[in-house]
Design goal:
heterodimer; A: mainly alpha; B: mainly alpha
């Protein structure tokens, strides 16, 4: 046998050896769990025993007929869409303002300040805002509403406002992150495009509208995709602020909280994995729709 | 056409200059004044925005020193403590085993960072410099698993660890850290830019692949390792979902799950200044990292656009 036809060359062996930790990690903590979750979603599994009778699609139909699941999905979607759209709008405006500031020291200062909340954990943010958004008149936000003559609002305790409060809270953390990415994008807009338009008599607002925004379209879509995926996975803050029941009155029940409840409180692993696959399919579908929209609108450029 | 195109903007630029001078001497100064005005407005709007960002921090720190708010919020809300004291911090450390939790968080972070960075560098190097069969498959598989949300895999992963008896140990953190495909991606992209001739020279000199990697390439990878360390530290320090599932005994809790469980058991909105003191302490490491490495963090996020 010629050496070229040998089963494994030296390079092959070293390559696999160097990749062994990665391959083992991917196999054990990505491929296996995905397969196991799929398997479990077709079985009647209770407790931590991965076995039980084959029940076909009944776990899926249970989830799909459970009004709790739809409510959780609706809440997740509502909070996700609102925080993604508001977050993108606010951070794009902020990034544009920072970018037009001519004072470099100020630029860096604002960048730093806006980004700071992003390093704060979801737990710390939730604890902090549970006091800032305290339902009584002692809460800072309600106190400020008092200046306007408004009555205290039960931000996290009134089901009418709880989801909006979560959105406001997450905006505090997310705006800086998106601002940084937008700023990087804004700096990549070719200057001669602006100069040409200026020569044609376009004011700075017009240029922003017709040059900057279309030029940054890929970044907008990137943020829509990342924000949507992130929004669909909301758990830590609603768990801490609303408990496992998603209080007040289930308004903070999210899809991941639904999965968590079924898996770790009710020990319904089959139902929980079926719900997690449904959530995964929804995330994939949303991502695909956004990417398709991007491609369609993109046209030849 | 090609000759004409570049002259077109030049003519228009000339016209603009003409119109400027035609409309009199007032034009340049008024434009300057308008600029100064718009810069001032910009600054005021941005400053107002940063006050909104800062006030929660300020309120947290001020309340954390307010012994008067140890049982409930004071009315009216005040920025300056009613009864300034550091006793709130003493209470935080005695009511909640903060020192233990913080130590645990450091242990978990250090282990995860070590395992992830080594795994990412080894695989990134091999995928970039060693030609082996199936390299593309490995890369494609690793990158495609990056799309899988952790929430999808957490149930089987929990059952896997409880099946082998590693729940409530830090192995439940160190072992999954091997799967750091994003780091592999970063390392490969970085090593792609380093010359392959270094490896060839080393191999000719009879050095083993491992020593070529460790002595020649690994030291050159310092910048990308720094990026990974920062992103991993922020991610691991702040995570709560996996610690919630994987850690059962309270003496193993990391700081996030420790704080969360304390609040969960005592109820929300209790002991404002003590909770705020504990929260402020939990933020010190990430805020320090941010203050000293801000440039790195902002650059790496602008570069990668992905936080984990």
């Amino acid at each position: 046998m010629s050496p070229r036809k040998r089963l494994l060359t030296r390079n092959d062996l070293t390559g696999y050896l160097f990749n062994a930790p990665l391959i083992a990690g991917v196999a054990a903590f990505a491929v296996y769990p995905m397969a196991a979750a799929l398997y479990m979603s077709f079985r009647q599994t209770e407790g931590s025993v991965v076995s039980g009778a084959w029940v076909g699609l009944s776990n899926y139909s249970y989830v799909l007929e459970d009004s709790q699941f739809w409510k959780a999905l609706g809440n997740t979607f509502y909070m996700g869409v609102l925080s993604v759209l508001l977050g993108i709008a606010i951070s794009f405006i902020m990034a544009s303002l920072i970018n037009s500031l001519k004072w470099n020291l100020g630029k860096n200062f604002f960048k730093g300040v806006y980004f700071l909340p992003n390093v704060v954990s979801a737990v710390a943010t939730s604890l902090l805002f549970s006091f800032l958004f305290y339902p009584g008149k002692e809460g800072l936000l309600n106190f400020m509403l008092g200046w306007l003559g408004l009555d205290p609002v039960g931000w996290f305790t009134d089901p009418r406002y709880s989801r909006l409060s979560i959105v406001l809270m997450s905006l505090w953390g997310a705006v800086g992150y998106n601002t940084i990415i937008f700023l990087a994008g804004l700096q990549s807009v070719p200057r001669d495009l602006h100069e040409a338009a200026e020569v044609d008599g376009a004011g700075s607002f017009k240029r922003w509208l017709h040059i900057t925004i279309p030029y940054l379209r890929p970044i907008f879509f990137f943020m829509l995709v990342m924000g949507t995926i992130g929004g669909m996975k909301r758990f830590t803050d609603v768990w801490l602020l609303g408990g496992t029941a998603g209080n007040p009155s289930g308004s903070l029940m999210t899809a991941v909280l639904y999965i968590y409840r079924n898996a770790f409180l009710a020990s319904q692993m089959g139902v929980a994995t079926a719900a997690s696959y449904l959530l995964f399919i929804i995330i994939l579908a949303l991502t695909a729709i956004l990417l398709l929209l991007n491609r369609k609108k993109g046209g030849p450029d | 056409m090609t000759n004409f195109a570049p002259t077109e903007p030049l003519i228009q630029k000339g016209e603009e200059h003409l119109s400027l001078s035609r409309s009199g001497t007032l034009q340049p100064p008024s434009r300057k004044r308008r600029d100064a005005l718009s810069q001032t407005v910009l600054f005021i709007v941005l400053a107002a925005g940063s006050i909104v960002m800062i006030i929660p921090f300020l309120w947290m720190v001020m309340t954390s020193f307010d012994w008067g708010a140890r049982l409930q919020l004071s009315f009216p809300p005040r920025l300056w403590p009613q009864d300034p004291s550091t006793k709130t911090y003493e209470a935080a450390f005695t009511n909640i085993p903060m020192a233990k939790y913080i130590w645990n968080s450091f242990l978990v972070s250090a282990g995860v960072i070590l395992v992830s960075a080594v795994s990412a560098l080894l695989s990134g190097y091999a995928l970039s410099k060693i030609r082996f069969r199936g390299a593309n498959i490995v890369l494609l598989l690793a990158l495609s698993t990056m799309m899988i949300p952790f929430e999808m895999t957490m149930i089987p992963q929990y059952l896997l660890f409880s099946g082998v008896g590693l729940i409530d140990t830090y192995w439940a953190f160190y072992l999954p850290a091997m799967n750091y495909a994003f780091g592999t991606f970063l390392a490969k992209a970085f090593i792609d830019q380093l010359p392959s001739s270094l490896r060839e020279a080393g191999v000719i000199d009879g050095a083993s692949e491992l020593s070529v990697f460790w002595r020649i390439y690994a030291p050159l990878c310092a910048p990308i390792v720094a990026t990974m360390v920062i992103l991993l530290f922020l991610g691991v320090w702040n995570d709560m979902l996996w610690p919630l599932l994987a850690l059962k005994s309270s003496d193993k809790y990391t700081i996030q799950i420790g704080l969360a469980m304390f609040t969960y058991n005592n109820g929300l909105n209790q002991q404002p200044s003590i909770i705020m003191a504990a929260t402020a302490v939990s933020l010190i490491p990430v805020v320090l990292v941010y203050l000293f490495l801000q440039r790195y963090i902002i650059e790496s996020i602008a570069l990668t656009g992905i936080k984990q």
